[in-house]
Amino acid sequence: MKWALIGVGHIGTAILEGWIKTGYRAEDVYISVSTREKEDSLQEKYGVSILQEASQLADCDLVLFAVKPQDLPQIAANYAPYILSTTLIVSVAAGIDLSSLRLMLGKTGPSSDEYPILRVLPNLPSKVGAGVSVMVANEHVSQEQLDQAKSIFLNLGLVMELPEENFAAVTALSGSGPAFVAVFIEALADAAVYAGLHSEAANTLAAQTLLGTAKLLLESKTPPAILKNQVCTAAGTSIYGIRALEKSGFRASVFDAVIAASERTEALAAEAAENIV
Ligand SMILES: NC(=O)c1ccc[n+]([C@@H]2O[C@H](COP(=O)([O-])OP(=O)(O)OC[C@H]3O[C@@H](n4cnc5c(N)ncnc54)[C@H](OP(=O)(O)O)[C@@H]3O)[C@@H](O)[C@H]2O)c1
């Protein structure tokens, strides 16, 4: 499969490195970023091909946009005239839905309502192969195309298909979630430093505790409440800590964070849709 990766920033780099680490050929990927210097250095580092001319997109089975959501309308409009209407378009742009993507492409591209488009929301732990990519395809994506896209995202971790109406919640949970979790890890470590631990040990213990707990939950398929009860013995240290969390409104704060991020996703999606039409 030959494919193009437009944008090689945080997520684009994770996608590219995942592809190469799995043993696929780097030269089958045509990359494009904002400057020629950076393209040269990416070619030198990874052995990828550079998208020299937009017309090379016609040779690609799949074109993946990993640019900032606010840059996507312009970049998609620049490239759309060169993309065949049967080529699979993949976007990882947060908050840009399938119908907005079709409108963006349709503005300058072949006047087709039938673009196969896949919207994917990966997350930052994809950088270490422990990410999750949630995807939704429009009705024009064939099974073969879906499998081709999965061959890219399975290198980054788990892949899940969900309906598009779940994407605001997904963006808030698995997209923004690593930021929430990082704040929690930081707070755990800071508290342990306050209690006398040096910061290097505190950071490692805090992160490993999150990692191990998540692994245990996933592998044992145990609901979190059961695991919590297993740790909290009667009148023991953990239940005293849980009481302190509840008193300071920890759960309510987490609810607020996820709901705020979800609402913000919806607002940004509406703004993006308005800007296209
Ligand atoms: N970061 C996350 O955790 C995360 C999670 C889920 C989804 N996403 C989505 O992933 C997308 C990328 O996010 P990111 O964090 O990877 O952003 P980023 O690090 O800022 O990367 C953006 C990339 O776009 C490139 N670019 C800018 N203008 C371009 C142009 N005209 N032609 C080609 N490439 C161009 C940039 O090139 P240079 O390298 O030359 O600047 C850069 O490589 C966003 O839509 C975001 O919503 C991100």
Strand content: 5-15%
Shape category: elongated
Reading off the top of the CATH hierarchy, the class of the largest domain is best stated as Alpha Beta
Global structural class = alpha/beta
- Distinct small molecules: NADP nicotinamide-adenine-dinucleotide phosphate
What's the gyration radius in Å? 21 Å
- Percent helix, as a range, is 40-55%
Mind summarizing the main beta sheet? 8 strands, mixed
Name given to the CATH architecture of the largest domain: 3-Layer(aba) Sandwich
Distance between the termini: 34 Å
* Name of the CATH homologous superfamily of the largest domain: NAD(P)-binding Rossmann-like Domain
Following the backbone from N to C, one meets helices and strands in this order, namely EHEHEEHEHEEHEHHHHHH
> Tally the helices: what do you get?
11
- Average pLDDT, to the nearest integer? 95
Q: What name does CATH use for the topology of the largest domain?
A: Rossmann fold
Low-confidence stretches: none
Total beta-strand segments: 8
Number of domains: 2
